[in-house]
């Protein structure tokens, strides 16, 4: 009959619940399951001038040494970008390309996911065959 | 006099060697048809829809069809040398000659939406 929680005024109770909900929402927002935003990826691709090397539509590189990107798997692109960011600082995983290393330094993890989603959404020459 | 002759001989020898090195490099031309018979190790992963790596990160293996040949060649040389890091790719690339690398690159670069899957599979 004399339950302790009934002694708490209902106003305080709802505040606690509201706080808990907020904390839960914040925790959710910080989770790694991040929905990539291809439209932000396009903004980043333009501002970083990817097309200067990878060509129009990121499908016609200006030199055959550079890869076509349009339509490439987003998770592979994300990993490649992370490897460039590690660069020579990580001798086991990093990729060493001076241009790409400089390009990706300012990108956050979510920026790289957005870029990757944008690249995958583009139509190009790449085709998955045996 | 003797000194001058010696110098000329050395310069001549270096020039000849340099020319030889350049031609040796230029002699390797990728042949897509030959590449068709050399991709047995590639198609176990590349070209299988949704195929993913397991370690150190999970991701779809890259699409190779239609990619620039020169880029593929540089990538294979990077795996062979260890500049690029992926154990499986290192093991495979290390077994390839420069001619193999050129042929495989030519094979993938030539693929289009109209290409048939490898008949030798």
Can you walk me through this structure?
The complex is a heterodimer of chains A (130) and B (121). Chain A has 130 residues and is mainly alpha-helical. Chain A contains six helices and no strands. Chain B has two domains: 1-28; 31-121, Cytochrome Bc1 Complex, Chain D, domain 2. Chain B has helices at residues 2-26, 32-36, 69-81, 87-94, 98-109. In chain B, α3 (69-81) packs antiparallel against α5. Chain B is globular and about 70 Å long.
Task: Please provide a brief summary of the model.
The complex is a heterodimer of chains A (130) and B (121). Chain A is mostly helical.
CATH topology of the largest domain in chain B: Cytochrome Bc1 Complex, Chain D, domain 2
Task: Sketch the topology of chain A as an H/E string, one letter per element.
Answer: HHHHHH
Given helix and strand content, the structural type of chain B is: mainly alpha
Please count the beta strands of chain B (DSSP E, at least 2 residues each). Answer: 0
CATH architecture of one domain in chain A: Orthogonal Bundle
Helix content of chain B: 40-55%
Rg measurement of chain A, Å: 23 Å
Mean pLDDT of chain A: 86
Largest sheet of chain B: none
Unreliable stretches of chain B (pLDDT < 50, length at least 5) are none
CATH architectural label of the largest domain in chain B: Orthogonal Bundle
Task: Fill in the keyword field for this structure.
heterodimer, A: 130 residues, mainly alpha, Cytochrome Bc1 Complex, Chain D, domain 2, 0% strand, B: 121 residues, 2 domains, 5 helices, 52% helix, globular
